[in-house]
Amino acid sequence: MCSRTNPRSSRTGRPRSTEADTAILEATRAALVELGWSKLTMGDVAGRAGVAKTTLYRRWPSKNELVVDAVAVLFDELEMPDLGSLQADIEHVVLQFAALLERPETKTALMAVVAESTRDEPLRERIRASIVDRQKRLVLAGRERAQQRGELPPGRDPMAVDATDDLIFDVIAGAVVHRALVSAEPVDGPWVARLSALLVGGLGAAAATGGDR
Amino acid sequence: MCSRTNPRSSRTGRPRSTEADTAILEATRAALVELGWSKLTMGDVAGRAGVAKTTLYRRWPSKNELVVDAVAVLFDELEMPDLGSLQADIEHVVLQFAALLERPETKTALMAVVAESTRDEPLRERIRASIVDRQKRLVLAGRERAQQRGELPPGRDPMAVDATDDLIFDVIAGAVVHRALVSAEPVDGPWVARLSALLVGGLGAAAATGGDR
DNA sequence: GCCTTTCGCTACAGGTCGTAGCGTAACTCC
DNA sequence: GGAGTTACGCTACGACCTGTAGCGAAAGGC
Questions:
Q1: Is residue A32 assigned to a domain?
Q2: Which of A64, A95, A157, B14 is the most exposed place for a label (fewest CB within 10 A)?
Q3: Which residues bind DNA (chains A, B) (predicted)?
């Protein structure tokens, strides 16, 4: 009833078990691997994690949010070392992303939660914050490096730069997801080389003709 | 027991009601609009269509296949008029595809069935045959026209041409889907212009430097 | 020690799935 | 026109999952 401005956990009472948290998320990933998204149930996850079903519902409102959190941590692996050229940077990050999509947990979960998010705005925001933004940072970093190297012209209009970043991100992430999940073909070296060549060529052509428009 | 080589329906007995077929598919789309993928149930669809639940199960093994068939007919609208240039053709087909993705039926259903298909090979094949191939034909037609116009060099190696078609398809379809469903930003004129400029530039650059490799 | 919150457990109503069984309707072949 | 075959609507059913409620016990802060 008093001032509760401090969101730093609830100061009093029994604290939530962090072990339970990690056990639940781990159990969720295991269930995704074995059962897939559609056959995964809250009761099953609770059993695997060794906790009561009510404990899950105290932390996550539904399967959707639980799975998002369980998969999101996998995206921490994504890194962006400087490989010396824009094309090399693109190829490296695409292969990393593809490896993530090859894992059965993400393969079955990612599209499913995105599908759910088309009718659930808070869920979409959760996905954006914990998964999408994490990928987008890599695009930003790669573009900035390419500009410093002189491979891309320095952006004058910040709006146009943002729009280009958005476009590149949608093209790369979309193409990889579509290749891996819709076409169901391998995202391997040759394909990635073609994709990055197309992108680098397209960016170069755009810069040569009209710039950032 | 006798020879049943003729697959032209089953010759004897009461034929299946084609009215029921169309009513069910229409009811499925209506349910997708109102309820979305996850809350759509077989019983609900049966009620809307005015048929018994058992009638649904006699035709479709599960919700997945039913929804694929219900959404697939929408992709018949996709057409590919010759607009005179590769870039114009790309922009037109992308805007058409985007309009399809804006519809609530497809928005909620498409990603969901693809997610299911990652663990269901027959379902993936059904999606490929009734939805994906229908889109892919447009890419083929656009590429051939561009070659006839001289915008793209004639492909010598058929394997390389196929690979390029696949790449373009994954890039276009993937980018549009990602933009519309993941980024949740509008696929409007300016964005489409940027995307097609990137593609045309990339294809031109690839042709100029190394060709189809 | 008192208060607060979490935990595991059980039980429960509500809803969905997918099937079985029945009598009836529609159509083909003889 | 009758026999055979298949589809239809209807009801009922067991199995499963959801999400919540209520309980006593446990684990922290003050």
A1: yes
A2: B14
A3: 41-60
Q: What is the pLDDT of residue A10?
A: 58
Residue-level pLDDT at A212: 46
Instruction: Calculate the angstrom distance between C1' of D3 and CA of B58.
Output: 25
Task: Report the distance from CA of residue A13 to the C1' of nucleotide D25 in Å, as an integer.
Answer: 14
CATH of the domain at A43: 1.10.10.60
Largest CA distance in chain B: 65
Which tokens in the block code for residue B74?
């929408």
Q: Looking at beta carbons, which residues of chain B come within 8 Å of A38? A: 116, 119
Strand C footprint nucleotides (protein C-beta < 7 Å): 3-11, 15-21, 25-29
Contact A118/B at CB under 8 A = yes
Q: Which of A170, A181, A195 sits opposite B114 (nearest CB)?
A: A181
CB-based contact, A166 to chain B, within 8 Å: yes
Q: Give the nearest nucleotide to B58, CA to C1'.
A: D7
Report which residue type is found at B160: A
A-contacting residues in B 134-163 (Cβ below 8 Å)? 163
| CA distance linking residue B56 with residue B62, whole number of Å | 9
Are residues B33 and B113 both part of a single domain?
A: no
Q: What is the pLDDT, as a whole number, of residue B205?
A: 80
Q: What is the pLDDT at residue B199?
A: 95
Nearest CB to A114; choose among B36, B111, B197: B111
User: What does the block give as tokens for A4?
Assistant: 């509760």
Residue pair A91/A196 in contact by the 8 Å Cβ criterion:
yes
Residue segments in chain B with a per-residue pLDDT below the cut of 50: 1-8, 211-213
The low-confidence residues of chain A, meaning pLDDT below 70, are 1-10, 208-213
Give the pLDDT score at B208.
Answer: 67
Q: What is the DSSP letter of A4?
A: -
Read off the CATH number of the domain in which A161 is found.
Answer: 1.10.357.10
Angle at B178 between CA B173 and CA B180, to 5 degrees: 95
Which nucleotide C1' is nearest A44 CA? D17
Alpha-carbon gap, residue A18 to A21, rounded angstroms: 5
| Closest-approach nucleotide to residue B23, Cα vs C1' | D8
H/E element, B173: helix B158-177
User: Which domain range does residue A28 map to?
Assistant: 18-59
Domain boundary among B59, B87, B109: B59
Q: Does B131 touch chain A (CB under 8 A)?
A: no
Residue B10 is predicted with a pLDDT of 58
Give pLDDT, residue A8.
45
